[in-house]
Amino acid sequence: MGSVSKDWKRVLGEDQIRRSVTRISHEILERNGGAKDVAIVGIRTRGDHLAQRIHKKIIAIENTEVPLGVVDITLYRDDLSNSSDQPLVRGTDLPFNVDKRLIVLVDDVLYTGRTVRSALDAIIDYGRPKAVQLAVLVDRGHRELPIRADYVGKSIPTSAHEMVQVQLTECDDTEGVYLRDTRKGQS
């Protein structure tokens, strides 16, 4: 994505993101009584990178291996037919049996809930988990579906005219969470 222009307001910096990932990792372990039967699954692309960070932190805390996977929701999106572009499918990789496992689904921003619904559909195609919990870096509100996060790095109340952008060093030139009012500059 590259650097962010000056009309974006930084709401989380690198240290705040790191602390959020650490806190979420601890909360996952506390809520579930450890890492037994837990698997971490990221939603491509930034959810995937956050899932890797949570995965590493949980391994460091518990000193035990935890399965890690990634889901690509491209073909599960409910707006796929509205696009004339050919979708880029990067693939789902769940190298473990999801049956009877507690899946912690990880994404960067929770907004309408449609991305999470698509990810749930993708996971269910691989089996029947015992439960699915949701961890997000940012919850910005405005749900269209009855979906809520179990673990939230930061709740950022937004208007419908605002955009949230997450940048992570694994795929961007910088690290931070930014907010922009799309009405600025319009007459």
How would you describe what is shown here?
Helices cover 25% and strands 26% of the residues. It has helices at 14-32, 46-62, 114-124; strands spanning 9-12, 38-43, 68-71, 102-110, 131-139, 151-155, 162-167, 176-181. 36% of the residues are buried. Strand 4 (102-110), helix 3 and strand 5 (131-139) form a beta-alpha-beta unit. The protein has one domain: Rossmann fold (3-Layer(aba) Sandwich), CATH 3.40.50.
Write the SSE topology.
Elements (H helix, E strand, L loop, with lengths): L8 E4 L1 H19 L5 E6 L2 H17 L5 E4 L30 E9 L3 H11 L6 E9 L11 E5 L6 E6 L8 E6 L6
Parallel strand pairs: 2-3, 2-4, 4-5, 5-6
Antiparallel strand pairs: 1-8, 7-8
Helix pairs in contact: 1-2
Along the chain, the helix and strand elements come as EHEHEEHEEEE
What's the pLDDT, averaged over the residues? 91
| Residue runs with pLDDT of under 50 for 5 or more positions | none
The assigned CATH architecture is: 3-Layer(aba) Sandwich
Shape: globular
Number of strands: 8
Largest sheet: 5 strands, parallel
